[in-house]
Specification:
single chain; 240 residues; alpha/beta; Rossmann fold; six-stranded mixed sheet; 8 helices; 36% helix; 25% strand
Length: 240
Amino acid sequence: MSALQLSRVSKVYGVGAGEVHALRSVDLSVEPGELVAVMGPSGSGKSTLLTIAGSLEEPTSGEVSVGGLPLSRMSRNERAALRRRAIGYVFQDFNLLAGLTAAENVSLPLELDGTSIKAARVAAVDALERLGLADRAQHFPDELSGGERQRVAIARAVVGQRHLLLADEPSGALDSVNGEAVMRLVRATCQGGVAGVVVTHDAQLASWADRVVFLRDGRIVDQTAEPAGPESLLEADAAR
């Protein structure tokens, strides 16, 4: 069973002459343990694909399934519960709460879903430890480096029983060294059985993925199963 399945998904904003087709009949399947990178020029639909995959907005047409569950058959509350329990998000600007420690930021999704504070904190510290941040658990975001804040965001995204990790330019606010470290962590997380979809403009970082999907004008125009290296990805994108 695919962790994520998009079947002929389209998204249109506006009406009439002002219509914008963000996605056009996109088919995409991501298996457990697989890391997929999504590349494409600005406006190609990359971020829209992520928000629809994560049930943050609905497609105009087509179907999205997470873990075999069609989102169109779920109520708004059921989709919210699915996001808390099964889907993790990592964003470029980290989205950490400044008034909470690293451990509290990571445990918050579990607490919101009804897990006891004690159990949630234990799970949070364990997730931070796996990402090399055990000694930073009680620090606040402004006491952490950019790379450390992004690792906290990844820990928050995978804590608990998450099955799908969605990351929108997770290394965009980091230098090249920290950006590569983040992609290494994302890949390691996926090798543990989590399905991952990462939007990136950086071919070097995309080369960490098992598969690279190219979007242009809302359509998947190409994909490669095993990237030969960053240079080949740049050449393929420039040729389109």
